[in-house]
Amino acid sequence: MSQILRTLDDSAVGKSIEPLLSQLNMRVFGLEGPVVSPSIALALVVTFVSCILLLMRKSKSKGKRDVLLLLGLPNSGKTALFYKLKDGKEFQTATSMKENDATFQPVISKDGQKSRSLLHVVDSAGHERLRHVAFQFLPVTKAIVYMVDSVDFEDNAAPNAEYLYDLLTNSLVINNEIPILITCNKLDLALFKKLSIKKKLENEINKIRKTRSAQPETEGEEDEDHKVLDLMDNEEEVFDFGKARTDVSFVESIVTGDKIEDILNFTAQHLKISI
C-alpha cells in the first residue's frame, strides 16, 4: 500500500496537484509548501465523501416506510401467513417469542408464481409482553394485517379489542395514516363470521373506552413518537370501525387453504407490489 501511495505522489497526477495543495495551505494556514502529500489528500477526500454517502443512506433508510406488519394474538395465523407469502407453502408453526423479518418476492398464486416486486414483511410475536416490540416497527410500517383467530374468537374478543384499541389510538398509526386490514382467519372451522366478529370487537372497544377514560392521564410519560391520541374525531359518539382515524377494513381468510386473495390485494394496493 505504501508503495502505491509513493507511486501516486511521484506520478504526473500527484505532481500536478502539488501546486493546488501549496496554495490551499498558504490560504488556510499561512505556510509555504503542502502540509500533506497528494496521496494523503486524496485519501482524506475519499474518506470524507464516503462518510457523507453513508450518512445520506442511513438517513434515507431511517425514513423509509416499506414494511407489511403482521399483528395479532398468538396462534392467529401470522407466521403461517408469513411463510405462505414467502414460500407458498404451509408451515407447521408454534408460538414464537421472536419476530420473523425478511424481504422477498411474495408468492401470489396457488401454482407458486412470484411477484416481480420485493416485499418487506415483519411477523411480530403475539404475546402480550412482547407487544411493545411490535410497536417499535410502526415508524417503518406502510400497512398492517391484523389476524383474528375466528375459531376461539369468543374467548379472545376482549384481548383482540384491547390490541386494536392500542393500535387505533397510536399517534404513528394515525399521523402516518397506516391502513389496517383485519382478517378473520380459519373461516372454514369457525362459527363466527366477519360481520359478527366486527360487531363484537366494536362493542368491546367501546367498553375499553369507558375503562380507559376513567383512568388518570399519563400523557407526560409517553414516548414522543408513540403518543396516545383520541380514538375518533368525535369522542362523544359510539365507536365503530368506520369512524376510526385511519382506514380499517375487514376480510375473511383461510391461510392454510389458500384463501388469501384479499390479503394479496390489500398488499398490492398499499405496498405497490405486482400481482
Automatic annotation (TrEMBL):
It holds the Pfam family SRPRB. The chain crosses the membrane at residues 35-55. InterPro entries: P-loop_NTPase, Small_GTP-bd, Small_GTPase_ARF, SRP_receptor_beta_su. GO terms for molecular function: GTP binding. Keywords: Endoplasmic reticulum, GTP-binding, Membrane, Nucleotide-binding, Receptor, Transmembrane, Transmembrane helix. Gene3D superfamilies: P-loop containing nucleotide triphosphate hydrolases (3.40.50.300). Belongs to the SRP receptor beta subunit family. NCBIfam families: small_GTP (TIGR00231). This is Signal recognition particle receptor subunit beta.
